[in-house]
Amino acid sequence: MNTYLRILSYAKPWRRFIPGYLIFSVLAVGFSVLNMALLIPMLDVIFETTNVEELSKSTTLPVFKLSIDYFKEVFNFYMHQVVTEYGKFGSLIFVCIVVILSFTLANIFKYFSAIIMAKAKALTIRNMRIDIYKSVSRLHVGYFTDTRKGDIISRISNDIQQIENSISHNLRIIFREPLMVIGYFAFLIYQSPSLTLFTLIMLPFAGFIISEIAKRLKKVATEGQESLGRQMNILDETISGMRVIKAFNAVGYINRMFSKEVKKYADIDYSFSKRYELSSPVSEILGAISIAGILFYGGDQVLNKGTFDGSSFLVFIAVFTQILQPTKAIAGAVTHFQRGIASGERVFEIVDIKPAIENKSNPIKLETFKNEIEFKNVSFSYDSKKVLDNVSFKVEKGKTVALVGPSGGGKSTLANLVPRFYDPDEGEVLIDGLSLKDYDYKSIRHHMGIVTQESILFNDSLWNNIAFGLDEVNEEDVIKAAKIANAHDFITQEPEGYRRIIGDRGSKLSGGQKQRVTIARALLKNPSILILDEATSALDSESEMLVQDAIYSLMKSRTSVVIAHRLSTIQNADEILVINEGKIVERGTHHNLMKLDGIYQKLTAMQGL
Is the model's pLDDT at 112 over the cut of 60? Predict the structure, then answer.
């Protein structure tokens, strides 16, 4: 129930929905009950049991009072008028007209209440989608390393859809159908308290059975949503890695893996359906038993005791059958909710994750970078694996520090600590003498430009990819950045130019073109601190020459942290740090390191430098 109430909280403030919804729902229920009540005089006319003597008492309109008797007296007044002037056949026409009018009004009010609830449902789902997306965007980088991307996508898409289908879709049932049940029961009690009490005997038993069925659904529903998440993950990896799959003739393998998960989901869904569909026949059987009991007990009152007339008894049964429909809908909603509740809990698991990187209260805003970046006794681990061990060094403003060494040594981890994608387990990273934790992390990243080994681009225009994240950009600055990155020429060769859509992850561009666009993006930001993580690794020899000159000129006036496997690109760095197994094992300029006959000298020899 807490999960359901939390879902409903996304439609706040409810005060804009509840008054109108309650008014229209009460009116709809009122006219629906009136429809059934009007069957009594209709049957009396047909069976010629109309009490003319009672009608003759209704010669004047009664004084208004909020009760069933008032409406009955008003009806009798007009009925008397019609019977007197037009006879019994005329009274039948009159009753039919009133029934049509009452049904029309009931359905009009039902429609208005439904569209109010539809608005609440749409608002709930809209706000949930926005909230979970914002929650995902706030999560730290490490979360996406540890979690399957397909599962995250599934929670945003499949689980939200399931909530819409299973919970929001049934808001109308939960809020309106109880009003219908209450209204009909009020009418039944008015007609015959003793017979109504008899009908209530079965309800606790029926409620217990339905609740037991519902309890068994939640676990199965959760398993089903998790299976959908695995399917989404396989699908995402298949689309992303199609070239590798085909190159290794692994189509059959990936098909078998996906088919296995789909079959598993089908079994889970079948298991859910068996339990869910059980609620309908159970409620039908219990309803039939109740009707049989009413026929026996009420029939005895009509035939033997004479305490109930035939018309009223028939209407009593008709009204009770009307109660069965909303009761069945409520029972179905309770069981159906379990799938939505399971999806809601999966969604809130992400919403409730507290970001690993958060600002402290009253953080300092980094207005300008003045002096240096310092790593002070920094250690860091992924799970239980230590990747940095007591690392200390400084990067002075305007200087370039290069990180080199064997793969897996911790170079990228060091670079990721600078924009505070992670926090060190031990030690501190400082800017201008203050720990990064003291700053607003957004203000830190505002001063940084990052170019990674993998060109991260979006399925948008070249213009929007270069101007990504910047609110106000003029055309001259975008073109200037593209020219420095040697991207302007290939961009303008296309008919659409900067408005060309580059496809998913920049699939319409070559590797070198993608990397030049990401470099242009970093250039346009005009950062004080530049982080280059294998920035030229994806370039061919010609592109590398074009871009490297631009990078050199860019780095001259900026503080740069450069990770490079191509050692030719960092020979002019102010300091080179050789990282191996999480430690700095060598440090110095290119010239000094070549004299040591250590790891750096061996790496340069391997590259023929």
Answer: yes
